[in-house]
Give the backbone structure.
Amino acid sequence: MDWFTKLALTIQIAIWAGLAIITIALIVRRVRLKKEETFEKRDN
C-alpha cells in the first residue's frame, strides 16, 4: 500500500472510532439520566 491509502484508512478508522465513542458516551449518559428519573419528573 502506498502512503495515500494508509492515510485514507487511518482517517476513516479515526472517524469511525470517534463516532463509536460518542455513541457509547451518549447511551451511557441516557441510561444514567433514566435511572435518576422519578415518575413525578416525567413529562408525559
Q: What stands out?
A: Helices lie at 3-36. The CA atoms of residues 7 and 27 lie 30 Å apart.
